[in-house]
Design brief:
Length: about 70
């Protein structure tokens, strides 16, 4: 292996590793501790149904209790 092949293969492996890391990051995106940037109420948020923040969970629970009444 000459110098040119070494750099070529190293570049390919580096790009492949970066792509793999990006895929893993996107796959585990739900595990990231997100903070809500919206100043609106949870019910007006686009992500309301799937939001894992405690405030949204509490809002959904309260909404279900109100619906039962």
């Amino acid at each position: 292996m000459n110098r040119r092949d070494f750099f070529r293969k190293s570049g390919r492996i580096g790009i492949l590793a970066a792509m793999g890391g990006g895929v893993l990051l996107l796959a585990n995106q739900k595990q990231i501790d997100w903070k809500c940037d919206e100043n609106l109420s949870c019910r007006g948020c686009v992500e309301y149904a799937s939001c894992d923040l405690e405030q949204a969970k509490q809002s959904r629970t309260n909404e279900q209790r109100e619906a039962r009444k």
